[in-house]
Every structure is written in C-alpha cells, then in structure tokens.
Amino acid sequence: MLSLPPELVENILICIAAMGFPTAIAALAQTCRFLRDFIDGATDHHLWRNIFLTSFDDPRELIYTNKRKFACRSGHDRPRREVEWAAEFKRRVWTKHYIARHTQPLHVQKVYGLRSRAAAVSQIDLSPTFDSDSILRALRTILSVMQTTLPPNQTSQGVLYLSDNTSSRSGNSAFPENYSLSKIFHSTTEYPIINPDPTPSLNIPWLESTLQRGLPAALIARLSGDHVETEWEQTLEAQALGEIICCTGFLPVRELREERIGRLASSAASNNTGKSNPNITSLDMSVDAQKARARHRAREHVYDMQYLHRRRCWGPFLLVPKSSASAGPRSTSVANAGDVPSRNWPSSDVNEPYSSESDSDFVPPDDASQTSWSTNTERDDAAEQRRHLPLPGGTKKRELPTNEQLIPDWTWLASARIISEANLRDWDSSRVDEFVKGQVWRAGFWSQTEIERDRLSDGVLPPAAASATGNSSATQTVYHDWAGVGGIWRRCVSWLGYEDLVQRQWDLNHAMEDPTIFENMRIVPLRLRVVGYDPPATSAFPDRPTLKIEGESGGPDWAGSPDGEGDDVRRIHGSVSMLADGHVRWSLFTVSENPQDGDEYASEGIQIGGVGSDAGFIGLWTGATHTDGDPIGPFWQWRVA
Which one of 88, 295, 395, 452 has the minimum C-beta count within 10 Å? Predict the structure, then answer.
C-alpha cells in the first residue's frame, strides 16, 4: 500500500466505502502512522467528501436548491460553513452499528412456579444497556439523515397551474374554483398518490437497514409501557424519539426469543417478579399488545385537558418559561423541563448554510428555481389581535409566545400520530398502509417552486415580483407558495365524547384502558389558498414570509353527500410560518356555522418531515376562545391534490 500512488490509495478507500465496508477504513488507518495521517490528517476535504457521497445524498444539492428557491432574489446573504464530511460520515457509521447492537432479539423468560406446572410468568428485562448521551447521539443522527434526504424528482411530480386557474398533479383531476367542496371530495383520493421516485435517494436504503429491527426495546417500552412517564417525556432523547415516531409511526419490538427457565420455588419466584428491579417486567410484548398499550398511553397524553396553556400558545409546543415569555428567543441549550435541542443538521443550516462555492467540483442542478417572492407591508389586524388575550376580571393583556420562542413538543405530537394512525387503521387499514409506510416525510413534493397567477385580496402586485417578471399590472401577482398550501386536503380529526373527556381527567392513568371508551374520528376535505403575505415570523428565516391562507373545510356535521346539498361547510383562515428551530407552524381557525359568531375552533400543527412533504402536518385542535373546559384532540392533515 505504501508504494502505491496517493490517487490510487484514495480510490481504494472510496471503493471500500462504496462496497459497504466503511469500518475497514478505520482499521486501515490503524495499521501504520503514514496511513493514519493520510486518512485522518488530510487537510483537503475531497477524500472524505467522495467517501461520504458513496453512501449518502449530497447535502450541498439540497441547500443549493433551497437557496435558489427562497433566497436567490431576496437580497439576504447568509453566513456559510463547510460540510464536515469526515465527522458526519463517521457519526452515521457509528449510529448504524450502535442501533444494530442494541436491537438484538428481546429475551423473554418463561418462569414456571413450583406449585403451578401449567401456568408460566413471562418476564422481560428492559434495563437500558445504553446511556442517555449515546442514544441521543444516535437518534439525532437518524433525524439528520432524514432531514438531508433529497426530495423526489419534482419535474415530473410537481403541481402545474394552468391558464384557466385549475391545478393538476400526477393524474389527479383539475378543479375550477366554482367546484363545490362536496364535488371535490368525491373526485379526489383519500391519500396522496405516492409515485415511484425516478431518482432514488441514497439515504433511504441506509435508514431502512438501520431501522429494520426498529429501535432499542428499552426505548420503545417508554411509549408502550403500563404507565406514562411524565418526567422522561421532557428529556432530550424523548423529544428526539418523538420526532422520529412522527415520521415513521410507532415502531414495536418485533423479534422475541423465548427462554424457559424451569420451575422455581415460591420464594425464588417472588424474587423474579420485578419488584426488586423495576426494569424487569411481565409486560406482554406481542406486537398487538405493544400497539394497544402505545395507543392507551398516547390517549392519556393527548386528551389531558390540563395540557392547554397560554404559554404553549394553545398548541403542541413546549411550555415557554415565564422568565422568557417576553425576553426574546428561547434558548435550547439546557436539558430541563421544556427545553429540547434544535434539529441536528438542517436547523443549523438555517443560519449557516453549507458552502457549495468552497467545493470547486460541485455542479449545481440545472433546473434549480429562480422564482422570488415579496411581502406585503400591511399586517392583518385580526391576526394581530388574536396574539393578545384578556386577563380574567381585568383589561390587561397577556401576549402569546412568539415563533422565536416556540419549540414543538414532539412527545405530544408523536402521541397524536399514534392515535390518528390507529383510528385510520380501524376505519380502513388497507388504504392506510400505502400512505404511512412510504417515505412520506421527504421534503419538497408539494412545495416545488412555482409561478401562480391569482388575484390577492388587496389586488396589489408586490414591487419585487413586478420587477422580477417585468409585469407592472396591479391586478395580477406572482408569488411562491413555499409551504405547498394551495390545493385540496384531507383532515383526520379525533375526539372523545365530552362526558368521557371530562370524567376521565380524574383517573387518567387508568381510564384510557377502559374497553368501553369510544373515540370519535372523522375525515373531512379542505380547500386552501394563499391570499397574502406577512413578514417572516422569525429572523432565522428572513426569506420565508408568513403565508396568509383562507379556504373552506368540512365542519363537525360534514356528511359528504354527493350533491352537497345542506352539507356543513365552514370557512377557514390562518397562517403558515417558520419557527426558529427550522420547523413549519400551521395555525388555522374554523369559523362558526353562523359567521357572525366568529371563530369556533383553533388548530395548531407542525409539518412532519421536510417542507411540503406528503405527510402533511399533525397538531392539536381546541376551542377558539380558550376558556375553561374547552375540548382538546389530535388531528392529522395531508394534501391530496
């Protein structure tokens, strides 16, 4: 090896990684000082860049595309940093081996008592064999791979806006604006059409092989145990796990290995009941039992009426501390109750995008978009007023937390995903599988850069858009729907009857396992459109304006009659904005049946996966007035056309 030219040695190392033996590179570096310095001490990053690109998507292409979409004409110049190719590659290799070591078949011991020759007690040791720092590092790495997965090819799968103000996508019918919501409901599919990706991602096979056995049993048991672990839900690893579950769904432990221990004396048997070691349990670890317990624990979390709070902005957000409620952006550096880390790779990109110009051999894609956007200078007075709520018995106002302070509560959102998916499976499991088992969390499907001509409510063409297109007409506007708002949606809403919801608050830890409990679920259609812009909601994303949206939605009494006569259709309005940690916030308000009564329901949701993903967003709905006794429930909303 030492006599070979350096270029040939580099090619050998790259081939080793491409053939699936990345640890051999580390072994080779330990053979002698020269190879160690050659592999780990190189000042040029091209070797590790080429090694990285044999197994994973190029993050520079994703960042470059986003830059061209959202900042090419915005005038914002963000600071840049280089990709840490070697460190990131080593971290991903370590994570795959770490997960493999801790997801071996779970040992189930059948313990027979001396006085009972037939009955046996199944005992499982769920003592974690990992430390919090290691599992947090692994979970963050999995999220990093998900978040840097390139979107599907949008040239053949994107939204096309036609001259007659209709839209189509991947075989779906086009719908003029005068179509009723009922007619659209019966003309669209329940779930988005998942087309094969003509440009497969390298990240997907890595994720599939890494998660083929799921996650460590001791970690999954936190979600499907016999009680809710409130303190653990606030930890960093719980929040990271929750974000993964939101993308993949609940991952039960599937591989069990039964071991018969034999008959024990009664005294010996009592020592093996798990009382002395709380991690030894007799839980039924069959897949169905795990899913049932996970659903019960999720209900206890989601239907807790005490969860609603002003400092959560009445949504699925971590409680903003009182001291920082009006002190500016919220810090995420301390692992205390209510604090979680920022997203590992892409959220740091927000402020420090990867520098593609530093790599001389990086060739940007030819079809990168150059569409710009512009914002309106006038604020929506009604939306601004909703940010302040009166104090009981006084006129003083309390200001709601800002997007700079809000952080998604991923444990709550994961519980909402578990409930919604379980209810959808009860309704029709065959059609749900195709939807939830795909990589629906991949970014970009609905948010491709597009030029759409439409009349805004104010009828004013933003100056930047006019200069970009050379069109000075004041009756048309060119805008970019960066979140993929405009289109036809489905919304799965779940709730408990008010009597069940209120009475079970006093015994929440046992009530949700009651077989007589009845959970309601309804799927309604929505049609949404962008009607204007507000300035960006956070300084971390100066090139993504707040989208003001309006539309129609099926109401609580929606029946979906084919003729649409007398159906419950409600007006809906709200906004889509960015949070400081890189997630997309959806705020929607449903107007009462009598519009003069104002808003009846409020919904707060978080985009699942990347911007514009097929997974849509998951969140919390409640009463719009935020009074004592307001209902609470989860919803899942995805776009279909």
Answer: 395
